[in-house]
Write a structure and sequence with these properties.
alpha/beta; binds flavin mononucleotide; Rossmann fold
């Protein structure tokens, strides 16, 4: 039987849900959490099909996923596919992915974008108008159900494409400025999120769920309160913010502060234990 490994990264469960739903269609596929491998110096890739599933961050590939890709050593020449989940904005992740894989002598055979619920309430409004910085979108159950129906039919097609080793690209790269925007998007996804400052308010009960789901291990509960350790780089996955059971985690930064108690989201079929299980 052919070997298929699917490496995934997920802060709030959308990408993990997609990886699981794909595995349900392809039972021989093995799911491997990217975070569990980040301490390795080299990650060897064997087998004849390899997939990467991750969220789009700032139109690009999340920092920890890039770190993982830089460690890959291909021991075979597999069919490579990637699936990114996003909240609905321009996605150039395929360009960054192609660049990183090229350095490893590999091509990206197929690329798919699945639009799901946005896990940050203050993401960019799709129209890119000046009022975007104040834009807040609270996803409804109805929207989540509609998006889920679409991704289920997309996954049926993706399964067929992968099994037939076809080359399909659902990229946004027909955007007129795609190649110009790729460099800044790549840079931003690695650096500009460092402006985000999370903190816990008086509602915090010290339950420790934020520490548990923190994929970078930046959060430590000290004196019954979460502390974001300064010397550890945050992955900006928004898991702490979204999984807090009392919405005590808020955001203070120069542009997009968020002090409201509504607007949290994680995938309804994914638990805090599932997210923590990636470590
Ligand atoms: C730091 C950060 C940056 C994001 N940037 C984008 C973006 O550029 N475009 C977009 O459509 N969605 C963006 N999103 C939304 C996520 O891509 C989307 O909600 C994704 O499905 C979350 O996946 P996960 O639940 O597996 O973590 C961003 C989310 C975060 C946390």
């Amino acid at each position: 039987m052919s070997k298929m490994d699917i490496y995934y990264f997920s802060g709030t469960g959308n990408s993990l849900h997609v990886a699981r739903e794909l595995q349900r269609r392809i039972p021989e596929a093995k799911l491997i959490p990217i975070v569990s491998l980040l301490d390795h110096e080299i990650i060897e890739i064997h087998g004849d099909r390899v997939g990467f599933v991750f969220p789009t961050y700032l139109s690009s590939v999340p920092g920890p996923v890039k770190k993982f890709l830089r460690k890959l050593e291909f021991k075979s020449t597999p069919y490579v596919f990637a699936i990114t989940t996003r909240g609905g904005d321009l996605c150039l992740a395929n360009l960054n992915l192609e660049k990183l894989l090229k350095k490893k002598g590999q091509t990206l055979d197929s690329f798919f974008i699945l639009t799901m619920a946005r896990n940050q309430p203050t993401g960019l409004k799709p129209s890119f108008t000046p009022s975007d910085k104040d834009w807040i979108h609270r996803i409804t159950q109805d929207e989540i159900s509609k998006l889920e129906a679409i991704i289920q039919s997309q996954l049926d097609l993706i399964q067929k494409v992968i099994m037939a080793r076809e080359k399909v690209s659902e990229a946004d790269t027909s955007h007129p400025f795609a190649s110009w925007l790729m460099g800044p998007a790549d840079f931003a996804s690695e650096h500009s999120n460092t402006q985000i400052k999370y903190y816990a308010d008086q509602d915090c009960t010290g339950c420790g769920i934020c520490e548990k789901v923190c994929l970078s291990r930046k959060i430590k509960i000290i004196n019954n309160k979460p502390e974001w350790q300064k010397d550890i780089k945050c992955y900006y996955c928004y898991a702490c913010f979204n999984f807090c059971p009392v919405q005590a985690i808020l955001i203070r930064n120069s542009k997009n502060s968020y002090f409201e108690k509504s607007g949290r989201y994680f995938h309804p079929e994914i638990t805090a234990e599932d997210i923590a299980g990636q470590k």
